[in-house]
Amino acid sequence: MTADPVAEKSGFLCMYMSNHPDTLVSYVRYWGKVTEHVVSAKMTAIDTKGMNLTYQTKGGATKEVRVAFDPPLSGYEEVKPRLMSMKADAEEELGMVPAPQITSFRFNPRMLHTAVLLAALIYTTYAPSPDSPYYSPFYAPANTLRTIIPSWMLTFSWSLVVVLHGLESFYTLYLCKKHRTGFIVGAQYWLATLALGFPVFTDMRRQVQDARIESIMKGK
Questions:
Q1: Residue-by-residue DSSP string for 65-131
Q2: pLDDT in tens, the chain (220 residues)
Q3: Same domain, 89 and 174
Q4: DSSP state of 28
């Protein structure tokens, strides 16, 4: 059986994290979902699947909670970035630090993938038929495709785009408000999500996470 690379370094990691008591308390409260008044916490073990934490309540009771990693760590090199990411999420959600502000729209090449698929859908749907005065050989592939696919497929595809992108745009608005983008940047993210969907807000979340990590590193 293959040894757990993180569990092998558990003693060292627990000793290192003992220098960050506030972070351990935030893990217990947020990731451990402990609602009691936690006054102190200690990491007692860690492996690729999660970490064990003991904590003391205001009443003096000592308890233990297991925090699972989702997804599990693939190796020891993932420990630091994962713990830092979890620290940022926990402290922000608990109100210990303000949410990072996003002040610019960031284009990600992955948005082009969705743009190409959307352009193909528009081309196939609206290409003039051979009996149209606007027809040209350029539209022949679209007309051929329309004769091959079921008649309901284009309608279903457009319905899926409208519903999913619409719902995703509401989530983007929530992120824009939370991270104080301002009207112009917020409008850019919202309109981009309406058109291109999840690649936009997933990259925005990645930008937020980068800002969180940068803030933590500056505070070291």
A1: EEEE-SSPPSSGGGHHHHHHHHHHHHHHHTTSSPPPP--S----THHHHHHHHHHHHHHHHHPPPTT
A2: 568 999 999 999 999 999 999 999 999 999 999 999 999 999 999 999 999 999 999 988 999 999 999 999 999 999 999 998 899 889 888 988 788 889 999 988 889 999 999 999 999 999 999 999 999 999 999 999 999 999 899 999 999 999 999 999 999 999 999 899 999 999 999 999 999 999 999 999 888 888 877 776 665 5
A3: no
A4: I
Q: What is the CATH number of the domain that holds 52?
A: 3.20.180.10
Same domain flag for 123 and 196: yes
Q: Which of 93, 122, 155 is the last residue of a domain?
A: 93
Question: Domain containing 168: what range?
Answer: 110-218
- In this structure, are 211 and 125 located in the same domain? yes
Query: What is the Cα–Cα distance from 147 to 33, expressed in whole angstroms?
Result: 55
Closest CA to 6 of 49, 42, 43: 49
pTM: 0.65
Residue 42: name the closest of 17, 67, 60, 66 by CA.
17
126 with 211, same domain? yes
